[in-house]
Design a protein that fits this description.
The complex is a heterodimer of chains A (397) and B (352). Chain A is α+β, with helices and mostly antiparallel strands and 397 residues long. Chain A contains twelve helices and ten strands. In chain A, strand 2 and strand 3 form a beta hairpin. The longest helix of chain A is centred in the C-terminal third of the chain and has 30 residues. Chain B is of the alpha+beta class and 352 residues long. Chain B has three domains: 95 residues, Butyryl-Coa Dehydrogenase, subunit A, domain 1, CATH 1.10.540.10; 96 residues, Butyryl-CoA Dehydrogenase, subunit A, domain 2; 144 residues, Butyryl-CoA Dehydrogenase, subunit A, domain 3. In chain B, the strands form three sheets. Chain B has a three-stranded mixed β-sheet with strand order 1-3-4, covered by helices on one side. In chain B, strand 3 and strand 4 form a beta hairpin. In chain B, helix 1 runs parallel beside helix 3, helix 6 runs antiparallel to helix 7 and helix 8 crosses helix 10. Classes of the chains: A alpha+beta (397), B alpha+beta (352). At the A-B interface, helix 8, helix 9, helix 10 and helix 12 of A face helix 6, strand 8, helix 7, helix 8 and helix 10 of B.
Chain lengths: 397, 352
């Protein structure tokens, strides 16, 4: 067993820290809000800065313009960026899409889209959920019909993060009716602005726009913008699920640690009746327990990372880590609200706001985390059925 | 980074699991364990041990916890051994450790005073008058089988540890009646004569080192026992049929089992990482504290949830669940409870 980063990984971490010291994260203009997952806000400028260092494509194989760095370099980069509160919102999605294109993308995707990802210019929204297809994704109704060398997509997608400011949608469609419910799905990479695509913002409970719904009204997509094998889209989605879940949440642990450090600092410098809040035994105990849980979460993610790196079988490990990350995030936000007391509900920018209003924002956004990307309930069932071999509930209404 | 145990560690675990499966009903296969070299795992080879690491010990104790094996392993082969190893003079090490490695001598530790805190700063027993020890040490395990006991006392500004044979005049014990599976005793000291030869060279540092090793061993015991609860609960959920299907087919039970997995895995992760750090000689105080505090809460939660999954049968004496539960309960208290370790964490994260 060895829980240390390698020398090369440690050197890279230092390089990232130097970059962040020279380029304070506050300097980068933001295009979209921080939804609290730990990857910060959406900032094209920051993505370009990462691209300038070659970091977006660093782990790609050399023929695709990468440097073939080991996977753990991505881990290190995420960790350092999240600890600094950097706005790298679209990065995980870009990486995952690029990996899919490298694995089974068409020549056109490799030629046109991949270099744009490397430049930090292309970012993606996921067109998976629909009004009647949430946890039951297979109930989706959006259809792509072949028409010569094009497909024509018709349907309605919803809860697509940053769809209005991304460059392409990953639109998951039914391309045929098969005997098996899980067959006949195909993924397309659809450029924003394609005629027939109507992207409308949804204002969330924070008052900001993070999600969009997308109406696809006979959107014509060239057949070579298909991503992955036709009709096998759901299997491809399942195959990539553990990796998606991992990269979509790994940065949460260091991000929670950043917030915890702020709360520790706050407790040390805030006096109640002339005594630092840090001396309150309840506050003290809860912060220490939270630090412990965040470390436990980090170790769970490291273990999942090793399994992914080694290509070892994963049945439940990323699902457990995701649920824990999201529930711990809610618990930390709750703790922060308790510590801030009457100041807790104040928004960023409000007079008297403390900790930049970050805690109230985290409290609200964290409510969505146990729903997005697989609800906590679905994932617990995954752990039980796939991980522990308990019998699946198979009956359908 | 690599979470896999090395080949020697895998062999140790496999051997232990097989051995403990065979001796599932044996009361105390201490001799047999000694033949496998387990009591000497932490002891250097030149003193009759097998030069193992804390991580090796953790892996072994995890198996002991999983099997629910009773015996003086943690107090003698971990806590007392660490104390002698870190604090004994060369002569004391040579006198004690080979016999302890061979399993011929069992040594326990008397640490808690009436303040009953594992915080070394709160140990209060002093020599009074000089050369005589009078008082009590609380919650001493294995006092009935120990050949000697390490009694931790306070001098002016340091801790002083005495190694007293159990048959020294004035040393007595009172058995306590506990819900736990291990016997626990009050060690009574009535004007016990102690001399310079009885005194370990090391003071506070050796006590702190022994408590760190002990905290990790107890954490391993909890993780192993909780792992067993998880395995039993899953097996039960697959085979117990109610309403026409295994109860594991109901999401209420599925989700409970999923939470057990999280608790056990997270506790184990912190445990291995802390042991690895300790072995690497890196500062590990906070890591040990986190591991012990986390497991104390998480593994007890596993035990309680396990009772709910098992329903009425888990309430029976003949069912293994309550013994695993009681073992976790006792281990959560020994070598510092969650409250004590969280205070260590609080300081480590910079709380004023």
């Amino acid at each position: 067993m060895d829980f240390a980063f390698t020398d090369a990984e440690a050197v890279f971490a230092e390089e990232v820290r130097r970059f962040l010291a020279v380029n304070p994260v506050e300097r980068f203009p933001l295009d979209g809000i921080d939804a609290g997952y730990g990857s910060g806000a959406h900032s094209r400028a920051f993505m370009r800065a990462l691209a300038d260092r070659g970091w977006i494509s660093m782990c790609w194989p050399e023929p695709f313009g990468g440097q073939a760095k080991p996977m753990f370099f991505k881990l290190v980069l995420f960790e350092e960026l999240a600890l600094a509160g950097a706005p790298f919102g679209p990065l995980a999605g870009s990486w995952q899409t690029a990996d899919a294109i490298i694995e089974y993308g068409t020549e056109r995707l490799r030629r046109e889209v991949l270099p744009a990802v490397a430049r930090g210019a292309a970012t993606f929204w996921q067109g998976y959920s629909e009004p009647d297809a949430g946890s039951d994704l297979l109930a989706l109704k959006t259809e792509a019909r072949r028409d010569g060398d094009h497909y024509v997509i018709r349907g309605h997608k919803i809860w697509s993060s940053h769809a209005g400011i991304a460059t392409h949608g990953l639109v998951f469609c039914r391309t045929s009716r098969e005997a098996r419910r899980s067959q006949g799905f195909t993924m397309f990479v659809v450029p924003n602005g394609t005629p027939g695509m109507d992207i409308r913002p949804i204002t969330s409970l924070t008052g900001d726009v993070y999600h969009y719904e997308v109406f696809l009204d006979d959107v014509r997509v060239p057949a070579d913008l298909m991503l992955g094998p036709e009709g096998q889209g759901f299997q491809a989605l399942l195959n990539g699920l553990d990796s998606d879940r991992f990269w979509g949440r790994f940065y949460k642990a260091p991000a929670l640690e950043r917030v915890l450090r702020r709360l520790v600092q706050y407790a040390n410098t805030t006096r109640v009746d002339d005594t630092p809040l840090a001396r309150d035994p309840v506050v003290r105990r809860r912060l220490a327990a939270m630090a412990t849980e965040i470390t436990a979460l980090r170790v769970l993610f490291y273990r999942a990372a090793c399994l992914l790196r080694d290509g070892a079988p994963i049945t439940y490990e990323t699902a457990v880590a995701k649920v824990y990350a999201d529930e711990l995030g809610q618990k930390l936000a709750r703790l922060g609200m308790d510590i801030l007391g009457p100041w807790a509900p104040l928004r960023a920018g409000s007079p008297e706001a403390r900790l930049d209003g970050e805690i109230s924002h985290a409290y609200l956004t964290s409510l969505g985390h146990t729903i997005a990307g697989g609800t906590a309930e679905v994932l617990r069932t995954t752990v039980a059925v796939r991980g522990l071999g308990l019998p699946a509930e198979t009956k359908r209404a | 980074m690599d979470f896999r145990p090395g080949p020697a560690q895998q062999l140790l675990v496999a051997t232990a699991r097989e051995f403990l499966r065979k001796h599932a009903d044996a009361a105390a296969p201490w001799r047999a364990m000694a033949e496998l070299g387990w009591p000497g795992l932490l002891i250097p080879a030149d003193l009759g041990g097998s030069d193992g690491s804390v991580l090796d010990v953790v892996l072994l104790v995890e198996e002991l916890g999983r099997a629910g094996t009773p015996g003086p392993f943690v107090p003698s082969a971990v806590v007392a051994t660490s104390m002698v190893l870190h604090g004994g003079t060369l002569d004391q090490r040579k006198r004690m450790l080979p016999a302890m490695a061979a399993g011929e001598r069992i040594v326990t530790v008397g640490l808690l005073d009436s303040g009953s805190s594992f915080d070394p700063e709160r140990i209060s027993l002093t020599l009074d008058p000089p050369g005589r020890l009078t008082g009590r040490k609380l919650f001493v395990e294995a006092a009935d089988v120990a050949d000697a006991v390490l009694v931790v006392t306070r001098s002016a500004d340091d801790l002083v540890v005495f190694l007293l044979p159990s048959d020294r005049a004035g040393v007595g014990r009172v058995a306590l009646d506990t819900i736990g599976v291990e016997k626990s005793f009050t060690l009574t000291l009535d004007a016990v004569a102690v001399g310079g030869d009885d005194r370990l060279a090391g003071g506070r540092e050796s006590v702190v080192a022994a408590l760190a090793a002990g905290a990790l061993a107890r954490t391993a015991e909890m993780v192993g026992a909780a792992q067993r609860v998880l395995e039993l609960a899953v097996e039960h959920a697959k085979t117990r049929v109610q309403g026409g299907r295994p109860i594991g087919g109901y999401q209420a039970i599925q989700h409970a089992c999923a939470d057990l997995v999280r608790d056990v895995d997270a506790a184990r992760g912190l445990l291995y990482r802390a042991a690895w750090k300790l072995d690497a000689g890196a500062p590990a105080t906070a890591d040990v504290a986190m591991a012990k505090a986390y497991a104390g809460e998480a593994c007890l939660a596993v035990a309680r949830r396990g009772h709910q999954i098992f329903g009425a049968i888990g309430y029976c004496d003949e069912h293994p669940l309550h013994r695993l539960h009681k073992r976790i309960l006792a281990a959560s208290l020994d070598c510092g409870d969650a409250a004590l370790h969280l205070e260590t964490v609080a300081r480590a994260i910079g709380l004023a």
